[in-house]
Amino acid sequence: MTLFCGIDWANSHHDVAIINDTGTVVAKARIGDDAAGFACLLDLLAEAGDTPEAQIPVGIEIDHGLLASTLRATGRTIYAINPLSASRYRARHQVSGAKSDAADAVMLANIIRQDVDAHRPMPADTDLAQAVRVLARAQQDAVWARQQLGNQLRSLLKEFYPAALEAFAGQPEKGLARRDARTVLAAAPTPALAAKLTRTRLRTLLTKSGRRRNVDTDVDRLYGIFRAERLRQPPVVENAMGIQFSALLSQFEAACGAADDLAEAARTHFEQHPDAKIITSFPGLGLLAGARVLAEIGDDRTRFTDPRGLKAYAGSAPITRASGRKTVVLHRHIKNRRLAAVGPVWALSSLRASPGARRHFDARRAAGDWNHQAQRHLFNKFLGQLHHCLQTRCLYDEHQAFPPPLAVAA
């Protein structure tokens, strides 16, 4: 008799249901979210007929956390069911809108009993690949938090401190996220304080931030900007907005530091992985971008049986909607957004490093693609090549990836 297990996850407890191949519930229980609860789960599986040679597959709505990690360690097949799929499956069998955790556990077990071919098991990634995933995703979250706080700072500065925007926000290489910008603005959070900065004080602040080149030029530039005549808020209001700015700046400082520290940790772990050499052999992929790629695709090479699966997962492959005489090709919106975010960075960075990528990009633009469409098409092509290189354990080859055009005979 074939058995299937479904687990409805919650913060403090989990509902478990085990069904047979006819859909009959043979065991069910509610377990705690602790070691005792996991031991109870293993006992429940064993009593139902679970053995090391014939382990019961499990359907669950999450692919992370302690429960998923400990279940993965048992070596059994685990299916992480997308919550949207589970919701649609629930509506397929009942229209009343009724819902309970115990019923959802049975539903998850039935999903893998009836539609297992429509769902992928959780990949068997190595511990190092999972560590890279943790760090790369945390660094990406820190970058997004830094960007959000930077937008808030720019919006606030526009209201009372436009000199700071002129001094730093328009500068290349991160703008307000630059260390010298944060150091100067922390010392002068209001226009009044900025106007009192002497050239000596500005030079000290820039040197403290690590600046070594063109310091005198920037001192003169900042001195002139901060002392220029501008519209000002009333002194009391300006002081209050300066306090608000200092509070935001401290959060921004922490976000910048976290992003930098996590980036270094992600690079260090990624360099230790066997796939790092292959991934970074591609033009436009450095250590940090490569870590983000590995974090999302993992190192279980059975996860994507062909390049099409990887391209669909990244959202670079288009989808076709055909109905009657109408056929429309659309950009894919259901995708791994973290991996998709690497696409534009990878594509644009490769244009300088790869003549073949430049030719391909220019050809797509000449064919009528918008800039972002051409980037996505180049990203799509790179993903197919990456899948081949990882499967065959070979490095990127420019001449095979983008064969040079044949010379036209005179």
Overview of the molecule:
By secondary structure, the protein is of the alpha/beta class. It folds into 3 domains: 3-122, Ribonuclease H-like superfamily/Ribonuclease H (Nucleotidyltransferase, domain 5, 2-Layer Sandwich); 132-268; 280-401, no CATH class. The chain has helices spanning 35-48, 65-73, 83-93, 101-114, 127-160, 162-169, 179-187, 191-195, 199-208, 215-227, 235-271, 276-279, 287-297, 307-314, 337-353, 355-366, 371-392, 398-401; strands spanning 3-9, 13-20, 25-32, 58-60, 78-80, 319-323, 326-330. Helix 5 crosses helix 13 (287-297), helix 14 packs across helix 17 and helix 15 crosses helix 17 (371-392). It is globular. The N and C termini lie far apart (74 Å).
**Mean pLDDT score:** 90
| Main sheet: strands, sense, barrel | 5 strands, mixed
Element-level helix/strand string? EEEHEHEHHHHHHHHHHHHEEHHHH
Give helix % range.
55-70%
Can you tell me the residue ranges where pLDDT is under 50 for at least 5 consecutive residues?
A: none
Task: Please give the number of β-strands.
Answer: 7
How far is it from the N-terminal to the C-terminal residue, by CA? 74 Å
Count of separate DSSP helical elements: 18
Query: What structural category characterises the helix and strand content?
Result: alpha/beta
